[in-house]
Amino acid sequence: MSESPLSTRPPPPPMSGCALALLGLVGVVLLLPGLCSLIVIGIGLSDGSLGRHLNDLMGFFLMTFLAAAGGIFLIRFVFRGGR
To answer: What is the pLDDT of residue 40?
Structure first.
């Protein structure tokens, strides 16, 4: 039985510390739109001004929360050491 060529390859080298730091920085920057959206939602709901425009802004809020989710995944990737 012959081995496949993929099983004989060595594992890829780990990512450098500089690359991990850069990915962590990008992850933190991606968290900021979601944080700002949460602040806008909180202020808008407390004074009642957001209720009239919530349906209009829902797509915008969804996009910012998706960007923040990407930031969370990047930060998790960095803390796991790039594995």
So the answer is: 87
